[in-house]
């Protein structure tokens, strides 16, 4: 692993992408609406706590807080990242009347109590985690979720049910391009692995293809993942 600060600096890719907040806004709005369709979702409760796990850019934090507010939600939000630099930038975009705490911590070992969160929102984190450490991350999401709580994320997930040679080739090429754009190690993530990780952690999972905003065109590999405790 890189030293945390350099790690974040190198993922500054997203911070420089102006289209990114529109994309995130749509993704968050869709995921929150889906989570809130469950009438017993703990996110409906007035004292709900939400964890933004591996926030990355300040734009992610601001967009997430705005989308919660748009849905009439005013939960206590914990913004967590392994890089102080990511937290510092996010601190600057939080308003005084918002209930936000910042946590410098590793998603593989969350310093948070069991069953205390209604929602864990994370975005594109699993493929940054080396494969051997992923089960610790997903297990900890499940551990900190209250019963009925949900995890929402979007990840680049390879279909690994008998891919053709051509599919294997294009997947490898896309992954190489992604590593180049982000400038950090990105590890392949297969659908069967995500299913196993969520099942082992006791999370019921849904996988949804993501489309290019406003079109019916599916974004290659990118999927929205939802899990419920
Ligand atoms: C998950 S992506 C964030 C994607 C996000 N939507 C954005 O706008 O950047 C990158 C962030 O994850 C953080 N990160 C990487 N590994 C982590 C870990 N083990 N625990 C917590 N945060 C981590 C990095 O420091 C970085 O800020």
Automatic annotation (TrEMBL):
Any one Gene Ontology BP term: methylation
Keywords: Methyltransferase, Transferase
GO molecular function: methyltransferase activity
InterPro entries from the UniProt entry: Methyltransf_25 (IPR041698), SAM-dependent_MTases_sf (IPR029063)
Disulfide bond recorded as keyword: no
Domain of life of the native organism: Bacteria
Pfam families, per database record: Methyltransf_25 (PF13649)
Domain Methyltransferase intervals: 50-149
Protein name, UniProt field: Class I SAM-dependent methyltransferase
Source organism (scientific name): Archangium lansingense
Lineage, broadest ranks: Bacteria, Pseudomonadati, Myxococcota, Myxococcia, Myxococcales
């Amino acid at each position: 692993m890189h030293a945390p600060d350099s790690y974040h600096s190198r993922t500054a890719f997203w911070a420089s992408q102006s289209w990114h907040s529109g994309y995130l806004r749509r993704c968050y709005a869709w995921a929150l609406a889906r989570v809130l369709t469950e009438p017993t979702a703990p996110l409906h409760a007035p004292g709900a706590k939400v964890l933004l796990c591996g926030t990355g850019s300040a734009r992610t934090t601001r967009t997430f807080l705005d989308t919660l507010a748009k849905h009439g939600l005013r939960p206590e939000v914990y913004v967590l990242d392994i890089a102080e630099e990511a937290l510092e930038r996010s601190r600057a975009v939080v308003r005084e009347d918002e209930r936000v705490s910042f946590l410098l911590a590793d998603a593989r070992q969350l310093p948070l109590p069991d069953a205390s969160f209604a929602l864990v929102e994370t975005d594109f984190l699993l493929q940054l985690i080396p494969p051997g450490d992923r089960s610790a991350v997903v297990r900890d999401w499940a551990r900190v979720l209250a019963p009925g709580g949900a995890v929402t994320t979007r990840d680049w997930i390879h279909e690994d049910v008998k891919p053709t040679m051509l599919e294997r080739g294009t997947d490898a090429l896309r992954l190489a391009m992604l590593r180049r754009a982000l400038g950090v190690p990105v590890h392949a993530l297969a659908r069967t692995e995500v299913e196993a990780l969520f099942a082992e952690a006791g999370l019921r999972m849904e996988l949804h293809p993501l489309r290019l905003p406003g079109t019916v065109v599916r974004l290659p590999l990118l999927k929205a993942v939802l899990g419920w405790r």
